[in-house]
Amino acid sequence: GLSGAGGTFNETVVREMAAHVERPVIFPLSNPTKHAECSAEEAAQWTEGRAIFASGSPFSDVDMGDGKVMKTNQCNNSYCFPGMGLGIVSCGVMRVTDSMFQAAARRIAEMVTDEQLAAGQLFPRL
C-alpha cells in the first residue's frame, strides 16, 4: 500500500488474503505510521501471525504470546539509495539505469539467509 489512507487494509481484507495463502504478504508502506494501511499488531492478529509484513514506518516485532514472534520489516530506501548515491557520485555516472537498481536489489536480497526468510525477515539488518 502507498495510499496514505490509514486503515485501508482492514480486518475483512486481511483475513480474506490470509484465507487463501499460508503467508499473506502485507505491505502497508505509507508514512507516517498513522497513515499506514494497517499496523503490525493488526496484521499479526488477523493472520494468526502468518503474515509477511513490511512497512514504510517502523513497527516492532509482534509477540504472539505462544512463543512465536511475527517479524516486521521496514521497507524503505535506506537499503539501496545511500550505496547507489555513493557509487554514482564516486564514479561520475551521468545516467542511472533501471538495471543498476535491479542489481542493487538482487545484492540486498542475497544478503538475507534462508533461515531469516523462513522467520519472515525480508531484509538484512541495518
Written overview of the protein:
The chain is built from five helices and five strands. The protein has helices at about 10-20, 40-45, 80-90, 100-110, 115-120; strands at about 25, 50-55, 60-65, 70, 70-75. The strands form two sheets. Strands 1-2-5 form a three-stranded parallel β-sheet, with no helix packed on it. The chain has a two-stranded antiparallel sheet with strand order 3-4. α2 (about 40-45) links the parallel β1 and β2. It is globular. It starts with 10 loop residues before the first helix and ends in an 8-residue tail after the last helix.
Quick take:
This protein has 126 residues and is an alpha/beta fold. The protein has helices at 11-20, 40-47, 81-91, 98-110, 114-118, and strands at residues 25-26, 52-55, 62-63, 69-70, 72-74. 37% of the residues lie in helices and 10% in strands.
